[in-house]
Amino acid sequence: MKNIKILGSGCRNCQTTYQLIQETAKARDIEIELEKIEDMATILGYGVMSTPGVVLNGKVVHAGSVPDRNKVEGWLSGNT
Q1: Up-side HSE of residue 46: CA atoms within 13 Å toward CB?
Q2: Phi and psi of 62, rounded to 5°?
Q3: How far apart are CA 74 and CA 49, in angstroms?
């Protein structure tokens, strides 16, 4: 199971990113563990200066914008 964290303050882009990943995983019938991280100290600990950030299995794979669906599908299929 993939562990995915959405790093951000809870802004609209962060919410959109969370929802996009959740919907894409469901559509592809891929089980994920998805969580939101809103604590700024934790976010900065990942080195993310611009949100939303996406952490996949402990590695930052995206930051600063809403990822496109193709990128999310790549993460979920193992192509990071």
Answers
A1: 26
A2: -165, 145
A3: 23
- Per-state percent for the chain, helix, strand, coil, to nearest 5: 40, 25, 35
Q: What is the pTM of this model?
A: 0.93
Average pLDDT over residues 45-60: 97
| Cα–Cα dist 36/17, whole Å | 10
Name the token pair of 33: 């563990």
Mean pLDDT value across the chain? 95
CATH for 2-77 (3.10.580.10, 3.40.50.1370, 3.40.30.10, 1.10.730.10): 3.40.30.10
